[in-house]
Amino acid sequence: MVHTSPYPTPLFFFLLIVSLVALSEGWSVYIRNDLKSDLLTILCKSEDNHLGMQVLNYERELNFPIEAMSPTTFTCTMDWNGRLHKLDVFNSKRDGKVGRDLKWSIQNDRPCLLNSSTNKYDLCNYSYN
Ligand SMILES: *[C@@H]1O[C@H](CO)[C@@H](O)[C@H](O)[C@H]1NC(C)=O
Ligand SMILES: *[C@@H]1O[C@H](CO)[C@@H](O)[C@H](O)[C@H]1NC(C)=O
């Protein structure tokens, strides 16, 4: 027998919670050392979050999640070849629509993002500060 209730069913609440959790999942940031011959020393932080310093060998990648409940920017300070390079790896204004993964390739002259359609790091219109 089909019973139609005027009240939301437990299933409705279950589905609502599942979709809210999915919406708040946030982004994943990947940062890959493509510097060929250099170690990449990297320190990333946001207004209220601080990831420890890490050292990446060539072709190694670091990954961290971002749950952006409020507008935020994650900036990484990177050191190679005796010089500092800064990059906003995540900016909720800039990246709010990009999707759930931001995959950076750190190269000498500029950083590039992975284009998921081509599966290549061909989005290179970025620069270090
Ligand atoms: C990714 O590459 C495809 C195919 O070349 C291109 O059409 C698309 O605009 C690129 N994505 C972005 C975000 O530029
Ligand atoms: C590259 O980025 C700059 C500034 O963000 C923008 O003005 C310019 O149109 C972009 N060039 C291309 C080819 O997307």
TrEMBL record:
The keyword Endoplasmic reticulum does not apply. Pfam families: Self-incomp_S1. InterPro entries: Self-incomp_S1. It is found in: Secreted. Residues 1-26 form the signal peptide. It comes from the Eukaryota. Coiled coil: none annotated. The keyword Signal applies. This is S-protein homolog.
